[in-house]
Amino acid sequence: MLVPAWVDPVSSYRWYEPEQLEEARLLARLRRAGMPLADIRLVLASWSGTDTDLVRKLL
């Protein structure tokens, strides 16, 4: 769900920017809580937007 900033072409290791840390932590917390990936995708898409009602409903 998180788009890596860079992917090593040899090892396929994914690198992320420090700015992605908050979103990565949110994703991990929602997965641990058992939220389905489809719902997490909606939460992440709306997280920094104006559709806070959708986020509240899903949480």
Automatic annotation (TrEMBL):
Segments forming domain HTH merR-type: 1-46
Gene3D superfamilies, per database record: 1.10.1660.10
SUPFAM superfamilies given in the database record: Putative DNA-binding domain
Residues forming coiled coils: none
Protein name listed in UniProt: HTH merR-type domain-containing protein
Organism of this sequence: Streptomyces coacervatus
Lineage: Bacteria, Bacillati, Actinomycetota, Actinomycetes, Kitasatosporales
